[in-house]
Amino acid sequence: MTNNKANEEISKFKLLSAYGGPGSIIHSEYGSVLISSIEEWGFIQKVQGFIAEAATTKEDERERVQRESTLQHIKISNDERLLAELRDRKELANLSYLVLMPDIEIDDFFRTIKTRDKVRLAINSTFMPKGFFNRFNHYKEYKEWYRKWQESHEISNFFPPKEGAYELKQDNIVLICENGHISDFPWARYLSFKFDNPNPVHQAVNLFDQATCCNAPDIRIIDTSATASGFDTKWLSCKNEGCRCQGGTSLKGIMSLKVTCPGHKPWEVATGDPGAYFGNSDARRKSPLAEPCSANHMRVTLTTANNIYYSRTLS
Questions:
Q1: Using CA atoms, how far apart are residues 14 and 46, in angstroms rounded to an integer?
Q2: What is the pLDDT of residues 61-90, one digit of tens each?
Q3: Are 158 and 166 in contact (CB under 8 A)?
């Protein structure tokens, strides 16, 4: 679906700073989202296109990039000293241009990006975490809620994510590691793990290789106390009648859990359709890319924590 409704203005200083950038979590009007890698950023794609066009037409590349960028309100930095320093210090021999963050405005009525001839200047993102709860505290991944909605509703009306007339509530727990990887918390696998290991485990556990609690998990998390706060009063269970873990388990101590890192890189998902600034409908159905990770373990954290993302800066 074309998610024009999801478009939102975010300050460029918030988006690219010590606390924001590719792979960072930004809190938007509709929930927390993960900023995609710069290869998915519309204005970067546009400049890449100018470079490719220059090679095809045999035109001077720098002249074409400067001219077309100016026409599309994309600014190219003229700081040759910084460019040379980056090539040398970071061994980026093919680095040719530094593109400045543009100011991107949103038409609030149509929720579309106001740019010259619909240039793709958007900064793409995806929901993170991708799990949502309905009003009865049943948990499913975004793609599952999407599929369920598609069965009986017009798909363009799904955003913000909802079930029937009620908007879904996004999960607020993720797993992070010191090497920058980030993962959704695998609730069905954790429930199965707790069934097999009822006593506290102090070493890192390979949670992502753990089987799910059943073939069709129907996960639910409820608060057993109306007055207390925190995870000690929350109860995780599966409502599938065939599940061996139906009794469920308390979430007490979950924040101290250590998990072996699967090396997930969800910011590298392909989110942009060619020729448009809206999302790629296949993105929600794909598992995150992964790489080997040398970190000792991942730890549990809240998306509202201020320790999720720190950029590497160069002065």
A1: 22
A2: 999 999 999 988 889 999 999 999 999 998
A3: no
